[in-house]
Request: fold
Amino acid sequence: MLKQLIGLLFPQKLQDPNAGLKSTGNRITVNAEKFTIFTSNYYEEPANTDDLDVRMLDGFADHYSDEVREREICYLSCAYQPDNSTRIELLSPYIYKDRVTVYFLLEKHKQISIYLNPTDNREYYFDLDFMNA
Reply:
């Protein structure tokens, strides 16, 4: 149950609802050095959850089994200014890689394409396909 709850909070294969913007949106290209990498941690345990009730109680007492692993996820942030009076912070979806790997892939790729909805700049899509290579 706990693993299912964490899975709902951090789904690994969630399709971005704005993915269609890749074909219909306005493309902007942002250099890698313009991005800020933010990280967050979560805990992952194996799929075998026979003694889940005991593990939940252990979590309240700060007693974690060796099977529970701490994982790091990242997301990217950059500022976009469509005109002189408007500034929008664009946030990527979660990237299930550690900070060093994300930094390395960003430096290697040099630029990221972001596709904006032509009628509403609050809807956008980060093209992060290169992160899965």
